[in-house]
Amino acid sequence: MVKGANVGLSALSENVGAVVVGLGWSSATGEGDADVSVLLLDADGKVRSDADFCFYNNPVAGDGSVHLLGKTPTADGSEDRISFDLDAVPPEVDKVVVAASRYGGARFGELDDLRLTLADSTGDGLARFAVHDVEEVSALIFGELYRRAGEWKFRAVGQGYASGLAGLATDYGVDIDDDAETADAETAVAQAADGEAASARTAGPERAGAERTGTGQVDAAPEGSAPEGPGPEGSGPDVEVPGGTSTAPSARVPAQSRDGHAVDRAATGPEPAEPGTAAAPADAPKSARRPRTAKKKVTLPRTAKKSLADNDTWRTARLFPGSALKSDRERETRATSVVLSVMAQVPEFGRRLTAAFGAPAGRMETFTEVTLPHGESPRRPDGVIRVERAGKLWTALVETKTNGNALKPDQVQAYMDIAARRGYEAVITLSNDVALEGSPLVDVRIDRRRKHKVALWHLSWAEVVHQAQMLIRHEGVGDAAHAWLLQELLHYLQHENSGCHGFQNMGAAWVPVRRGIDEETLCQGDARALEVIENWERLVRQVCLRLGGELGQKVLPVQRARRGADPGARRTELADHLCEQGRLNAEIRIEGTPGVLGITADLRTGKLRTSIEVPAEGTGYPLARAKRLVRRLSDAPADLHIETLVDGRGTGPRGTLERLRPEPADILPKDGAQITGFRLSLFKGMGAGRGSAETGFIRSVDDAVDRFHAQVVAHVDAPAV
Fold first, then answer.
1. How far apart are CA 583 and CA 24, in angstroms?
2. Which residue in 127, 158, 200, 380 has its CB near the most CB atoms, within 10 A?
3. Strand, coil or helix: what is 517?
């Protein structure tokens, strides 16, 4: 599509009751990001209330009809995806605007290949819009969905705002506070938090001044309101108290946007008082009004309560016991039943797992061991997911595998045929394997003569664990019972007998490839090298899921590839490099860190290298910069390698932290060349086995990344002492 063009969705597909919009961009360095936002507008072109502003701290809007799905890696960067259940959009909403904004003075002109893609509920692409000529704008409307004559249409907009999110928000009825009021709001946040959370504001990643809470909402009190006291003693910064009060998700939008402007909804009249609160007069000044309150979402404490057991041999009773599981069939049956039952009982969890598959936001029921007719031999899929919304049913068949068992093409093909005949929307496969773009796990044939389309989706057990961790540790769920259910699910999936431990095997080609590299007999074009590259990519994606779930932050692999490059061709090129150099390379970006975390597995030397490049601070003399860096790394391992990055020459002096602690000046170039940054690296031995045992390669990669992040990366972004 071109700028200004519009099209009716019903003319593109029959499956447009739910659509997925993707916003993508790339850059030559792999850096650069933007925040996606969605505004639901009424017939006057204004938001009805704060709940109609959907952003990173309020990912669900419109009664669940709009859902931000987060970032998904692509061949040339990443893509933010948004799920729209158009049948469930409130009738008062006339238009839905899809936008993004940059922060910290960045502009969209610094990014390449700005694009919007539109897909139907089966995953088929419907439209693509490439955005051009956006050099000096920091906020951008990509497109909009709007109603016309009873149907939904899409318009390619491509309109930018040099004034950033502030200018965009003002156009749609969002009031902008001045900087002084923003500072007051931030002060109130700091006073309301306990000491540990306040220090995390400065040491951890920030959203341009807006503090993230366990609820996923911005907890900023307006000027003059009384700050809340800290939580109960010993609960830690992540504990939310059921029945407590906080700013309601629908009552406040970000206290400060990422481009530095404070944002709040315009007051349109007196608001009704909530139970237990005093209503402010309609003519009272804004600073005197108290925020509306709502029950806080619940997260679980990071530190467990002291056990009442007599000794360590006593085992805690579990809702989902895993110790009695012996056969693969038992593992598959129980894992399917456990996950599907929790999905149905915890709406936030079920929605997180199905929104990306085109499922609507509605009442969910799940079933196991359902018998369905298929010729002379009926089939029994492992599970069925059914969602009802406005009298319509969305149905998906589920096929599950545990341990190292692979999906069987004939089984999946049979379920695709059954789903097509019965009018079901999707088949979902669930296994320890990780799907790669352009490389399907199962090849199925699609009968193009059938009018009804069935989507085939894959979900890894690692992603199920990731979503459970995000909810119970960082974002919160509706009540304490739901949090406990998710905790029991997480304990079960991580049990040694569950068989749901994620990607655990580098494949049959791992040992021959390592031997061929060691003996220098591995030739370019060897299919075994390509298999190792694919499994390496699966491992890196799983590392990102695991680390992101533990940190509560976006962690994504960085793929430096030419725009529009074919994923298969890119992996073939990487396989040739592996044969030539004997190294596996990967980069991951962790939200809130100053650079990209690099991982290199050198198969010739058997060493793993984890590294990060830290830009040099713009103020102070070179020696002062070096001393600041060494002070920040006071708790880092003594064998940490530090290299100076010099403008125009690459690397300069280098040394270990142990040697540089007494003499930081040794890291400075002797000729006075300009320092652009420092590269920090740790080395460790690499596991030889292809699995995830103590001596396995997968375990060694996990340990190396965890150690480097905890002992190095977590400190380099902290302010100088």
1. 30
2. 158
3. helix
Beta bridge partners of 372: 379
Q: Tell me the per-residue pLDDT of 674-690, one tens digit each, with 9 for 90 and over.
A: 888 899 999 999 988 88
How many whole angstroms separate alpha carbon 460 and alpha carbon 649?
Answer: 44
Estimate the crossing angle of helix 527-551 against helix 510-519, to 10 degrees. 120
The chain-wide mean pLDDT, for the chain, equals: 79
**Cβ 80 vs Cβ 86: under 8 Å:** no
Query: b/e map of 30-47 (b: 16 or more CB within 10 Å)?
Result: bebbbbbbbbbbeeeeeb
pTM: 0.73
Structure tokens at 83: 């799920």
- The token pair that represents 404 in the structure block: 């190292």
CA distance 372 to 375: 10
Whole-angstrom Cα Rg for the chain: 26
Q: Do 352 and 378 meet the contact criterion of CB atoms below 8 Å apart?
A: no
pLDDT at 715: 84
Tokens, residue 380: 């029994």
Alpha carbons 265 and 262: distance in angstroms, whole number:
10
The amino acid that residue 646 corresponds to is V
Question: How far apart are alpha carbons 716 and 705 in whole angstroms?
Answer: 15
**Residues ≥6 apart with Cβ < 8 Å to 381:** 370, 372, 397, 398, 399, 415, 418
Give the tens place of pLDDT for each residue, 574-583. 999 999 999 9
Full DSSP string of 556-585: EEE----TT--HHHHHHHHHHHHHHH-EEE
